Amino acid sequence: MKKTFYIVDALLILAVLIGDACYMAFGGLLLKSLTSALFVTLGAVNLVYALKTKTKERMFAIFMLVGLFFSMLGDILLNIEFMIGAALFAVGHIFYFVAYCFAQKYKLLDFVICGLLAIVSTLIVTCVKAFDFGSNMMEAVVVIYAFVISTMLGKATANLIRERNLKNILLVIGSGLFFFSDLMLLLDVFLPTNNIVFDILCLVTYYPAQCLLASALLFTKTKEDAKPEVAETTEVVETETEAIATEDEKVEDKVEVNEEKLEEAKVETETKPKTSTRKTSTRKTATKKTTAAKKTTSTKTIK
Is 199 left (phi over 0), alpha (psi -120 to 50) or beta? Predict the structure, then answer.
């Protein structure tokens, strides 16, 4: 079954890349919308696979699909109303972040990495004087968006540091490309000098990023994947149990040896006093005989 989904994934990713190339060449909101719908379809197909294989990360897969859907909406509305499109993208990033938290719980390392990336992004937006946001409201929207996407990338990075697997690798690369794509969009839209290179780099990295994020659903942990982990845990427990049993046997042997030594010591202790008593009594008897002999001799002498 997995091979079938691999083939479907490959076809959908190819369709997304072709749509991306066509949009870059010809433009058009309809073509852009269809291309965005394709990566959501990719995510939906992989969610079906995840649910069919009874994934242990069901909430991760569901939140990832919702994030893909909001990204599609943001992608479409960005050309109509930039601020609304950016807001929808931010919502999508929040769903991605929550999905990453379902994959691995939020810990101190996550907070540190997310915080550092958010600080750097905010400084870039606020300190580069070349940006022309047009209004304080737009600048605030961009700062909030930069904070949200930095948090998403930071969490994906922390997950990979804590657990290296294919799913986390795809999430880090996808989130990183998404971050870079939005940085190019920032330069393209808010720098006074219009440079087509920024626009090209934005589109070249954006759709592959979404494909990677959608493909990560295909590599969620299933119950079958959990069996080897359970087996390893069982082996470890058995090994530890055997080691404990061996130690117990050693302790019992030591106790038995000590008990034997104590018994021998008791026997020796009980034997020694008797011997000394016998010797003492023998000496007393000998002394009495000697005294009696002397008395007899003295009596004879007197007579």
Answer: alpha
The pTM for the full model equals: 0.73
Closest CA to 213 of 87, 106, 92, 109: 92
Burial (0-12, 13-18, 19+ Cβ within 10 Å), 50: buried
User: What residues are paired with 222 via a beta bridge?
Assistant: 55
Asked which of 221, 253, 283 is the last residue of a domain, the reply is 221
Cross-strand bridge partners of residue 55 = 222
- pLDDT tens-digit map of 10-29: 999 999 999 999 999 999 99
Question: Are 137 and 198 found together in one domain?
Answer: yes
**Residue 287 and residue 170 share a domain:** no
- pLDDT bracket for residue 54 (50, 70, 90): confident
Interhelix angle for 29-52 vs 196-215, to 10°?
20
